[in-house]
Amino acid sequence: MPTPLLPVSMRQVSDHQIGIDWNTGHKSVFEVRALRIACQCAQCIDEMSGKKTLDESSVPMDVKPVVVQPVGRYALHFEWSDGHRTGIYTFEHLMNCCPCDACKAGRKA
Description:
globular
């Protein structure tokens, strides 16, 4: 049975970046606004069609997480400075959002 993907630490890299170190040894650095835009909740994605309904221009450039909480052993819940509070980011989704070159290349393959 494969080891489940888990974050081992999370840190503020800069005013606009969050870092997550994974139990795989991988280190992700996310732009916080990009994470907010990547929300997959029913307010941001149409549940029937899967079409993104979030207007990206409505997300402030300086948006930041104000609360980050674990959800079981599979996700993180973010509450954002723009008032958005309904998104759950599974660890798999976070890894799929990782902007590093190795992850981008893996998604293209």
